Amino acid sequence: MTNPIKDYGWEAVPRSFERLLASRPEIKKAEPVKVEDIKVPDTQLAKSVVDYARRELREETFNHSMRVFYYGQAIATQHFPHFHYTPETYLILCLLHDIGATTQNLHATHMSFEFSGAMLAHALLLSLAAPRAQADAVAEAIIRHQDLGDTGTLTTLAALVQLATVFDNVGLHPELVHRDTIEAVVRAWPRRRWTGCFAGIIRDEVEAKPWCHTTHIEGFAEMVEGNTLMAPFD
Questions:
Q1: Which of 89, 108, 111, 183 has its CA 20 to 30 A from that of 98?
Q2: pTM of the complete model beyond 0.90
């Protein structure tokens, strides 16, 4: 019998990065991981979402989404082995977490991109016959993937995508991923000047929607542009 709470990453963990990192079963150095050692799910649902993401996302964003998958899997395996979720669910989340930030989708609504993107992802997954608990989990994590803060909790799935996105976008917590792993992932999924691309998307949304949730992270575009960890790979 399946357990949707564990299968789809619904267990609650601290929202605070400090408390989340302190909850690791063991504090240890990151070890190198080969790209080929991280298996990409090949279920029919995963394949359908990959195809959708390739059609809808620009190459820079698609590559970022795949890097977030690989970094997240490396982080979870080495530092949070107690996290419960299916790799299929995490891959789907990574591929869809920025779907609301495409040029067309960003300007098609007054809503913040995380919220509109979650709605798009939820509808897509239900149309592909994904279980509702899985579609709900992905949508919840998309809504909260930029909801950084020090209070309360969020889902395991949301926490993992937060760690992986801020690692790729800002270079936070560089100790979580070995440099050899970064080099391997970037070779497979090049950044293609992602730093400038993403900073531009942030400024585009803030200019068009000065009320957007992205403004919650003050100076976000500048933080992205100050990503010294990934600068050699841009």
A1: 183
A2: yes
